[in-house]
Amino acid sequence: MRSVRGVGAVATRVAAAVCVCLVTLAAFAAGTEEGAGLFGFDAADSAREASLEQRFDGALDPADLRSWLQTLSAAPNNVGAPHDKANAELVLGLFKQWGWDAHIEVFEVLYPTLKQHSLELIAPTHFRASLTEPPVEGDATSTRTDGLPPYNEYGADGDVTAELVYLNYGMPEDYRALARRGVDVRGKIVITRYGKGWRGLKPKLAQEHGAIACLIYSDPHDDGYAKGDIYPRGGWRPPEGVQRGSVLDMAVYPGDPLTPGVGATKDAKRLPIADARTILKIPVMPISYADAQPLLAALAGPVAPKEWRGTLPITYHMGPGPARVHLFISSDWSLKPLYDVIAKIPGSESPEEWVVRGNHRDGWVFGAWDPLSGQVALLAEAKAIGTLRKSGWKPRRALVYASWDGEEPGLLGSTEWAEAHAAELQRKAVLYLNSDTNARGFLTPNGSHSLQHLLNDVASRVKDPETGGSTQARLRARMLVQGYEKDPTDEQDVAEEKARLARIAARGGDLGISALGSGSDYTPFLQHLGITTLSIEYEGEEDQAGVYHSNYDSFDHYVRFGDPNFAYGIAEAETVGHTVLRMADAAVLPLQFGGFADTMRDYVGELHKLVGQRRAHAAELAPLLDHNDFGLSADPTRVIGPPEREAPVPEVNLAPLDAVLKRLQASAAAYDGAYLRLSAGQISLSAAQRTQLNALLQGMEQRLTDARGLPERDWYRHFIYAPGLLTGYGVKTLPGVREAVEGARWDEANRYAGITAEVLGAYCDGIDRATALLSERAVLTP
Asked: Which of 120, 621, 703, 770 satisfies CB 3.0 to 4.6 Å to 763 for a cystine?
């Protein structure tokens, strides 16, 4: 699973600061003397910080990353596999060797594994799908036969036969297109292609529309030969490659489906499987494009619209029939153990404040890219931190490093650990920093906007391995180019986000970061517990997407097409490591709120624009329907009915959000100004005042949550960032309001505009209290 790269998710990018004059993060080194200002901010402190980061960087060795990746990906490491447990024990041993206090926490989760499956075309001709991935020349591990076969986790078992319907990407708009052509999926088996939305939405929507099973295939248009040479000549998906993956309804809640809200310990109270809201009721099966082509070629019915057509050498028809398909799936629905490795270094001055860092370790098969490319960077950081500690350095705050298990089936290991330790984390965690995959390309940090400046400063000092410039400079160029070169295939949300980031980049100063949706282990920390969160990875130049979740996500593939020299593994370790060190050693937590306020201005503006677009669209559609324009313009030999009428859009009261936005901008400006005076040494704080301020800042992100949760999914409590119910991975900002507007639930939109304004008001209260601590109780220095 990948954090923000599910198709339909906004491609997020961040970079580094130009404002060197602020040097606001320059003295995070431990040992700042009381009364010396926020971090000291004299030349000696700045030099100590630079020296610490240089010593950290000097302990990073790409040969380590290569060796660990080869070992960890040597055998299948899915949940329940022997190699999964062996990898946990290996990682545990490494942490202990490097001086960390480490242990394994075990959870027991529902993890169905495939026993038998089959797929046949039984009419108008016969074809039996292979449902296997054969060995590839030059890929040593592809010859192994002990990995899980291709399947989708948390789809139902079943033995069904029915006509087939082709459904493009299986998203809501595709059902509307089907309906206009008189095609109904009730009682049918649907086949959709991967892309445009998270895989779990495809069978969920199929189930809601009455289909009895769902097939998902990878069209070469999206990640096969249309993108480049296929494996092994190139990196892209070969004909028999299959994308495994979870179809757990994580937009409702992630983690073990039987223990929502509590850790899945041995004695936890569990739901009956039939009562678990996140498990599907119909069978789901992933297949390759080699297996999909005969099924699609057997379809008749309307010719698919242009935007539905992939690049298989067939005419794409929608059906239903005459293709009839028989599908069978049988699984072992037992509990399996998870092995989370948790390692800790105590804090020397603030041991009750935690900087938490995590990356998952389990894969669908070998998982060299997803997730072990990120796991080995985490290990490199841990080894380097251990080296610093042995040389006498002690972090001000405690460091907690986590190697998660069970992320792929539904964020199981991280969610169960976060739920089991929820109260402690909400009291202590000052940051959760996540990564997942990593490869050649561009820095892609995302997360809480209060850390936007910190990320900018860190990235401005990390060298890009390919260009020699900073990762900030390279990413700024990327944002500007993406804003200029509009991609006509981008969805509206993606295009708007690229344009927004390009505007920020053009202004100079800090680059913007984007919000987090779901799809990786940050989800329970940010969106359930309200912990300040970052996700940092490199990507964009690798040819890895074609082997995503397949048997070919292997060491041999990664060292050819991912990060051959592990240079970006080192860049990842430097970027994350420097962020961890600064968060660990800052005398005052380095949160600033101007970037958050600017981002909220954009988000509220987008809501106004969305309401206007919905109103204009409904008004434009009405006369077309009234005058039968769709009927008069239609080709009578290829009948396409009119769209459904849309009710007029009433007034949506966004005034509460507009009002709190003005307050937020003023509050953020006041705090950031006081923060800069503190960082410049114009005022100083006593130890007691710093403790009080840090306690307030530690809980700031929690002020953006509400215990009532979001509509239809109260597990999600963050009112600024959430995965969309109809995007899966992709983020919905101000989700309570935005999704109500998109769903034409106008009373709900008005209600959640008020609730969201209340949440933002509580956040302003926290900012104002922090400003008062800096402005009223601080000691002025000459």
From this structure: 703
Region of 509 (left: φ > 0; alpha: ψ -120 to 50; beta: rest) is left
187 conformational bin, left if phi > 0, alpha if psi -120 to 50, beta if neither: left
Other CB atoms within a 10 A radius of the CB of residue 324 amount to 18
For residues 453 and 590, the answer to whether their CB atoms sit within 8 Å is: yes
Which pLDDT score is estimated for 34? 31
> Which residues have CB under 8 Å from 684's CB, separation 6+?
35, 36, 37, 38, 678, 778, 779, 781
Specify whether the CB–CB gap between 759 and 706 falls below 8 A: yes
> Quick one: pLDDT at residue 3?
45
Q: State whether residue 346 is helix, strand or coil.
A: coil
Give the per-residue pLDDT at 779: 56
In which residue are the tokens 């040819």 written?
A: 543
Predicted confidence at residue 729, as pLDDT, reads 84
Listed as ranges, residues in the chain with pLDDT below 70 are 2-45, 489, 492-493, 776-782
Amino acid of residue 745: R
The DSSP call for residue 369 is I
Q: What stretches of 33-81 show up as alpha helix (H) in DSSP?
A: 43-58, 62-72
The answer to whether 206 touches 185, Cβ cutoff 8 Å, is yes
Q: Which amino acid is at 211?
A: A
- Three-state secondary structure call for residue 265: coil
SS3 619: helix
Written as one letter, the residue type at 273 is I
- Cα–Cα distance list, 229 to 342, 520, 549, 693 (Å): 41, 29, 18, 55
Strands 446-447 and 683-684: unpaired
Neighbours of 13 (CB within 10 A): 26
Three-class SS of residue 479? helix
Q: Token pair of 173, please?
A: 């708009």
Beta strand extents in 86-157 (DSSP E only):
101-110, 113-123, 127-128, 152-153
Q: What do you get for the CA distance between the two ends of the chain, in Å?
A: 54
In this structure, are strands 429-434 and 441-443 parallel, antiparallel, or unpaired?
Answer: unpaired
Helical pair 452-459 and 567-585, crossing angle rounded to 10 deg:
130
Rounded Cα–Cα distance for residues 177 and 303 (Å): 12
Sequence-ordered list of residues with C-beta below 8 angstroms from that of 521, at least 6 positions apart, any chain: 358, 359, 360, 404, 407, 411, 413, 414, 434, 436
Burial 472-501 (b: 16+ CB within 10 A, else e): bbbbbebbeebbeeeeeebbebbbebbbbb
Greatest Cα pair distance, the chain, in angstroms, is 89
Q: Quote the CA–CA distance of 58 and 26 in Å, as a whole number.
A: 19
Under 8 Å between Cβ of 591 and 533: no
Question: Beta strands 721-723 and 533-535: pairing type?
Answer: unpaired
Q: Which residues pair with 214 in a beta bridge?
A: 190, 284
- 3-state SS, residue 216: strand
Q: What is the DSSP letter of 237?
A: P
| Predicted local distance difference test score (pLDDT) of residue 35 | 30
DSSP letter, residue 368:
I
Using alpha carbons, select from 336, 354, 358, 333 the residue that is nearest to residue 345: 354
Predicted confidence at residue 49, as pLDDT, reads 84
Q: Where are the alpha helices (DSSP H) in 116-163?
A: none
Query: How far apart (Å, rounded) are the C-alpha atoms in residues 118 and 159?
Result: 9
Query: What is the CA angle 677-682-686, rounded to 5?
Result: 100
Q: Are residues 148 and 365 in contact, defined by beta-carbon separation less than 8 angstroms?
A: yes
Question: pLDDT tens digits, residue range 386-409?
Answer: 999 999 999 999 999 999 999 999
What does pTM read for this prediction? 0.93
Distance CA 221, CA 244 (A): 18
Report the pLDDT value the prediction gives residue 505, as an integer from 0 to 100: 72
